[in-house]
Amino acid sequence: MKYRRLGSSGLKVSEIGLGSWLTYGETVGNQNAIDCIHQAYELGINFFDTANAYNQGEAEKVVGEALKSFSRSSYVLATKVFFPMGDGPNERGLSRKHIIEQCDASLKRLGVDYLDLYQCHRFDEETPTEETLRTLDDLVQQGKILYYGVSEWTAAQIIDAVHITKEKNLRPLVSNQPIYNMLVRYIEKEVLPVSEKEGIGQVVFSPLAQGILTGKYKPGQEIPSNTRAANENINRWIKSYLNDDVLNRVARLEGIANDLGITLSQLAVAWILRQPGVSSAIVGASRPEQVTENVKASEVNLSNDVLAETESILKEIDEFVPIW
């Protein structure tokens, strides 16, 4: 496993991280989730990402239970705040009240004294950005969090936040967590250039496009009933990519992977790690062997010729811009 600085900060994170979205505390049994986290740790992953909203805190509990086996200084723990955690008008968003209350709740569920990285899960149109940033800065001062970042903020929102931190002498943003993979590349136009300029590292999620880049979906075939794409309640955007044009391109990518002696998922993660500004690619796993397979992407060196070939396959895929 290799490690990279998180943006321009001094924090080192494994270039492959383990996330818990749609898995831990929900679709994956707790012991299996713990086994995945332990396997990841043993393979050198030190970056573990979760969120309070993942199954209303249950994912945090599982992650905390798994990580208590290890020295607190040996891993980087990230969680997030924004989405509703109750029915009340103040139980959501990025107000000072909600952030402070949810930070304390996350610390309790995770069973730790501090968070390495605390992220704003989305942008809050109803709260002044300065209020949010001052609250996060206060949490750093209190020792409850060490660094803070954002997730799925636009370039304009990131620029505004950077200006506020500089003007008010607040601690800077260190990370952004966007969706990013071979098929979903909207951040390349504005978010990546702005982030690189300001020293903000990308800790990207869904590097396998929720399974499309594993090769499980084939052109001309029905969606397997036991896959996420068949679930109407999650990943609704994925169906826009389940068409023969995209899946034929994915099949060609799989051919490249076969020629390199690696899996398509390893090619997809290795491709992410060659993109500028990426600090870590966050993978998901429901079985320990999936962790093992994904970690091997850290050992893959893609040549410029291979990158050019993948680019020729990927060009002109319809752009996806998330609306969460």
Secondary structure topology:
Blueprint: E1 3-5, E2 12-14, E3 16-18, H1 30-42, E4 47-49, H2 58-67, E5 76-81, H3 96-110, E6 115-120, H4 129-142, E7 145-150, H5 155-167, E8 175-176, H6 191-198, E9 201-205, H7 244-260, H8 264-273, E10 278-283, H9 288-295, H10 304-314
Helix pairs in contact: 1-2, 1-9, 5-6, 7-10
In short:
It contains 10 helices and 10 strands.
Radius of gyration: 19 Å
| Structure classification | alpha/beta
Report the biggest beta sheet as strand number plus sense, adding barrel if it closes.
8 strands, parallel
What's the name of the CATH homologous superfamily?
A: NADP-dependent oxidoreductase domain
Number of helices: 10
In what range is the share of β-strand residues?
5-15%
Q: Can you list the strand order of the major beta sheet?
A: 3-10-9-8-7-6-5-4
Number of domains: 1
Oligomer description? single chain
In whole angstroms, the N-to-C terminal distance is 32 Å
- Order of helix and strand elements from N to C terminus: EEEHEHEHEHEHEHEHHEHH
Total beta strands: 10
Task: Tell me about this structure.
The protein is of the alpha/beta class. It has a single domain, classed as TIM Barrel. The protein contains 10 helices and 10 strands. The strands form 2 sheets. An 8-stranded parallel beta sheet has the order 3-10-9-8-7-6-5-4. A two-stranded antiparallel sheet has the order 1-2. Helix 2 links the parallel strand 4 and strand 5. Helix 1 packs across helix 2, helix 1 packs parallel to helix 9 and helix 5 runs parallel beside helix 6. The protein is globular and about 50 Å long. The chain starts with a strand and ends in a 10-residue tail after the last helix. The model has no long low-confidence stretch (mean pLDDT 93).
